[in-house]
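The records we work with from here on pair a chain with its fold. These numbers are not coordinates but entries in a learned vocabulary of local backbone shapes. To see the layout at work, look at the sequence and tokens printed below.
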Amino acid sequence: MSESLSLSVIVPVWHEAATIQSFLQSLQPVRNAGHEVIVVDAGSDDGTADLAGPWCDQVLVGTRGRALQMNAGADAARGNVLLFLHADTTLPGSAIQHLERFYRSPKQWGRFDVRLSGRRAIFRVVAWFMNRRSRLTGIATGDQAMFVRASVFRALQGFTPIPLMEDVELSRRLCSLTGPYCIGEPVTTDSRRWEQGGAWRTIFLMWRLRWRYWRGESPESLAAAYRADVRHAKS
């Protein structure tokens, strides 16, 4: 393939004012290498979009919903590879080199392994299970910084606009083309979700929701169950 890698990093955000600048500062080496970073805000009222502006190439403001936000970012992207990155996840320093190797491969999409930022042993166990499950099933989740060739993403019409499991649903369609290109050097995801909800409790919640999804329950009902569980954990 003669064309070189041109990467668009797409970051959906909502109410991330406290951390958005430090997060985007970690992506400046990506921009300095000639690639772009696109932030898609869901109408935050805490100044997230204004704070993000100096540290990215585009700030878009759209409808709340991660699938909708990521599709909007993809529509505006100029790169030949799209990477979808959560605002609590940081790329390893050698990410570009890994993605260049992906781009020269026959694979159409891929993901990184993940590790959690917390120091407790349980977080290493959680990450091991996440990565092992992904290798066995071929399914990736948003915490693993999914990436895909832009032409393939558009041919598949992007993420299905559902309130939960949009990453799993897209993975299933992508797996019909090729298995994922797996990058073993991990991204680092903030462990606060597991710390706030309880590590084992959060693990069981996510596995239970995925099991219900595989059994055919609607993403809308699963999203309602997820919100109810999170509210209960905080009460």
